[in-house]
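Sequence, please.
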């Protein structure tokens, strides 16, 4: 148990540093790392991915707050857009968590693997949508939020890799798109974590220390260090060759995605 806790602390440090340095969400690292650790701890294989996804979303609840505070301080968050997206995001994230409960752990693994490979390709070629329109009406924004929430909950992330391109497509500047996307990560994480908590309630094979599909030892360990190291990562951005590190991260995502897809 002590070895696992140390691993969770290390995982939080790595995920926090990468998130702060490269501007990516930690979920893409946290989910597969937790799944690997849960497997080595002998958890029931049928719920390993469910636990990893739910726990990852719960960590984002805490870590997103510091990011939102920073972006808000720089007046970069479009709160009116966040409000219009959030209703759909909450419904979508809850539905995504409940849908995940109906899927086998192996299917969730494949979905995560495919998503990871898509993100790797997007980062490798720096693909960005062309600003082609203005923001749609409230109903359409709520629908977009529902899609963002559902997909994010299914892969255990805050949704930045989906929300930011959507905002850029709607003719938003990169700075405001990133900041607003970060703010949207909070309702994604809260609703998704609650959904996994509810969906996992009553599952007999859960390990001790779980609330539904949230595993508290991992959650607390990751959060304890990721919050601290995210600020360190932001500082390292100005001292290290971030472009080179980004290429390394893309390679890591490709390896993770291919391994999970064919495992």
């Amino acid at each position: 148990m002590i070895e696992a806790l140390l691993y969770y602390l290390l995982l939080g440090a790595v995920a926090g540093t990468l998130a702060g340095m490269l501007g990516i969400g930690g979920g893409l690292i946290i989910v597969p790392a937790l799944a690997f650790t849960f497997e080595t701890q002998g958890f029931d294989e049928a719920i390993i991915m469910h636990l990893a996804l739910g726990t990852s979303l719960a960590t984002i609840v805490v870590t997103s707050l510091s990011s939102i505070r920073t972006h808000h301080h720089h007046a970069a968050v479009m709160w009116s857009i966040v409000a219009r997206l959030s209703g759909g995001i909450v419904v979508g994230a809850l539905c995504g968590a409940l849908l995940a409960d109906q899927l086998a752990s192996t299917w969730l693994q494949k979905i995560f693997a495919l998503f990871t490979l898509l993100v790797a390709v997007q980062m490798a070629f720096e693909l960005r949508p062309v600003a082609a329109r203005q923001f749609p009406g409230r109903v359409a924004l709520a629908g977009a939020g529902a899609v963002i929430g559902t997909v994010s909950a299914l892969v255990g992330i805050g949704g930045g890799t989906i929300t930011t391109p959507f905002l850029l497509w709607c003719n938003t500047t990169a700075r405001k798109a990133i900041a607003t996307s970060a703010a949207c990560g909070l309702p994604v994480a809260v609703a998704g974590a609650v959904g996994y908590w509810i969906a996992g309630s009553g599952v007999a094979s859960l390990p001790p220390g779980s609330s539904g599909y949230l595993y508290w030892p991992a959650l607390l360990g990751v959060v304890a260090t990721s919050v601290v190291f995210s600020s360190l990562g932001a500082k390292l951005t100005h001292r290290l060759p971030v472009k080179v590190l980004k290429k390394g991260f893309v390679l890591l995502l490709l390896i993770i995605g291919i391994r999970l897809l064919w495992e």
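The mean pLDDT is 92.
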